Amino acid sequence: MTVDQIPERSILITGCSSGIGLCAAETMKARGWRVFATARKPEDIARLKAEVGVESLYLDYTEPVSIEAAAKQAWSDRHPLRRACDRGLPAKRRSRRSHHRDIYKTRIARMEEGGKQTFKLGPEAVAAKLVHALESKRPKFRYYVTLPSYAVALLRRMLPAGALDAVARRN
Q1: What is the CB-side half-sphere exposure of residue 56 using CA atoms within 13 A?
Q2: Of 21, 51, 89, 138, which residue is least crowded by CB atoms under 10 Å?
Q3: What string of pLDDT tens digits covers the 171 residues of the chain?
Q4: 92-113 burial code (b ≥16 CB/10 A, e <16)
């Protein structure tokens, strides 16, 4: 049986209260799919039913933490993850005398500010790949979304493992 012969195409999408999950639910519903979705809060379920038109939802009672909030929290000076990362850096890299200090300051500032950054795409990019994967007659084994993911896939094909590890160490 092919995808075209299935009378009603259905999909379960988890985490539909925002971000990639919400965008995927909206996209697939607009394309005629029967969407089953999960959300953590009753108000999110009501909003999804009213705005997106999903037919059935499951209430997930896990503790909610958004990715952005977790990232900001993780990179605050008081968070154990940030302290562990700082301890893991060689002393020379943390040193004010390091010739890499400006690079580190720039990267840390970029991580802390969030927002739109180079190579960062919105949830629509993932939804487009989802559509392609589900509606293609010959789906691929893997789908890459960002330019860095394409670059790494190309490097994995071209470089031996030791060379790839050296590139990873430099970045």
Answers
A1: 6
A2: 138
A3: 455 555 578 888 888 888 898 999 999 999 999 888 888 777 888 888 888 888 766 555 555 555 556 555 555 555 555 555 555 555 444 556 667 778 777 777 776 666 555 567 788 999 999 999 999 999 988 899 888 888 888 988 898 988 888 877 776
A4: eeeeeeeeeeeeeeeeeeeeee
Q: Which two tokens stand for residue 14?
A: 């988890």
Q: Are 45 and 16 in contact (CB under 8 A)?
A: no
Domain regions of the chain by residue span:
67-113
For 56, the token pair is: 């059935």
Q: Assign 3-class secondary structure to 83-118.
A: HHHHHHCCHHHHCCCCCCHHHHHHHHHHHHHCCCCC
